[in-house]
Automatic annotation (TrEMBL):
<feature type="signal peptide">
    <location>
        <begin position="1"/>
        <end position="23"/>
    </location>
</feature>
<protein>
    <submittedName>
        <fullName>DUF4399 domain-containing protein</fullName>
    </submittedName>
</protein>
<dbReference type="Pfam" id="PF14347">
    <property type="entry name" value="DUF4399"/>
</dbReference>
<dbReference type="InterPro" id="IPR025512">
    <property type="entry name" value="DUF4399"/>
</dbReference>
<keyword id="KW-0732">Signal</keyword>
<feature type="domain" description="DUF4399">
    <location>
        <begin position="51"/>
        <end position="139"/>
    </location>
</feature>
Length: 140
């Protein structure tokens, strides 16, 4: 009987530790991410341009830096916002893990959407998530 209680207690302790490790990093309620440039509705001739990313009431730090109220930018291109789990790293989810606040990108002709999402030291959105409004641009 005591062995069953011990196994149950160990299982519960492991679940508690796993929950704590998976918990999202908190963000202040007044934090705000935004795209400085390009503006919504912009026409980008040639498709090469600088994206400038802004953040209020939080700081930007490189990936792996585990401090309160900091994170790093992720640029979502032509994709929907998902605020749970690790942020993917692919052609639609650009990571700026060195703490960059601007980047030169190139997009093919067409209509595109851009949105920023702040990630914590593990590339996971904060709680509550900090993200920008979606911006639509046209590359003729």
């Amino acid at each position: 009987m005591s062995r069953e209680i011990t196994l149950a207690a160990l299982t519960m302790a492991a679940l508690t530790i796993a929950s704590a490790a998976a918990a999202a990093t908190p963000s202040p309620p007044n934090a705000e991410a935004y795209i400085v440039w390009p503006p919504d509705g912009a026409t980008i001739v040639g498709g090469k341009f600088w994206v400038r990313m802004g953040l209020r009431n939080m700081g930007v730090a490189p990936k792996g830096v585990d401090m309160p109220n900091v994170g790093h930018h992720h640029l979502l291109i032509d994709t929907e916002l998902v605020t749970e789990g690790e942020i993917p790293s692919d052609r639609n989810h650009l990571h700026f893990g060195a703490g960059e606040t601007e980047a030169r990108i190139e997009l093919p002709p067409g209509k595109h959407t851009l949105q920023m999402l702040l990630g914590d030291h593990r590339h996971v959105p904060h709680d509550p998530p900090v993200y920008s409004k979606k911006v639509t641009i046209i590359v003729p």
